[in-house]
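Researcher: Here's the sequence for the chain we discussed earlier.
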Amino acid sequence: MNLFDVYSLYDIEPVAGKGSHVFTEDGTDYLDLYGGHAVISIGHAHPRYVEAISRQAGRLGFYSNSVVNSLQTELAEKLGKASGYDDYSLFLCNSGAEANENALKLASFATGRKKVLAFSKAFHGRTSGAVASTDNPAIQAPFNKTDNVVFVPINDIEATRKALSSDEFAAVIIEGIQGVSGIHEPTPEFMRFLVKVCKMTGTLLILDEIQSGYGRTGKFFAHQHSGIHPDIITCAKGIANGFPMGAVLISPEIEAKKGMLGTTFGGNHLACAAAIAVLDVMEEERLVENAAEVGEYLISELRKIPRVKEVRGRGLMIGMEVEGFTGSELRKKLLFGHHIFTGGAGQLTVRLLPALSLSKAEADQFLNEFKEAIR
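Model: Thanks. This is the structure I predict for it:
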């Protein structure tokens, strides 16, 4: 049986990792500034994380949601405290796309409406409703195409106001920072406008924090830079440091009835043990603060480098464009010539999404290698 070709693969196989580094079988050390699509939040093979999931695997790896699982309660309490949303309720699932799927479904249940307002260049996942709300026709099968999703440009208040002039919309869905399209941030003014217009029209505001959440931008969620409170928040990626997991945080103002949402694997014992360990490490090692400090340093230093045309982002969610290089050319040059993993977005942007534990010394290592690569 042949494997389905999911992405264009680099001819490199990491077999081990530690912190912000991964290693191939021959011992070659690569600095990982991508974390497998922003998934590695506390670093590879963190001993606290390894111990937690190993201990849980030796006790009970899985049982379905037909029984009590006190680990879910513990996770909900810790996540509520860490995020500042302790009055919200928590639905656990298995991925970011699944989190967005359930958020959209819940908004439709709660409002009785069908339509969704999304934004140009958005990416929300590859399941049915999530991909329909993603602004990329290339990944939408005929089955996914619908008139129920309307796209407007991000930060365009007038276009958004005009689109929401009817009472047909169940939800507005927006990323805390658009990641896949190249690190594009909604302004605080636009975010506050969305809260206001959604309240006026009875539309629910869904904040997709799958890539931008969990401390990546220097606050627990990126939308907290704007001082707003959405109705529904989705997260995944860094929530369990590589163990598949997603979550939906639901405002107490939404009447989410039993049976509206369901899952077999979501919130299983191993996933919860992993997610609890992540929150413990984030608190004990002050990783949200570290992401803010090291990220600010990285962004500042990158902007000083000749040929760097633009640097966008917050914390350790950074996009940059470099004169004379496409994003793919620069990523390959950094990977094969300088042993540094980075990510891409569109034709020109290189994305940096390292572990929140990235040190200033590792940031300097990258900066030195980066300067050499573009020299």
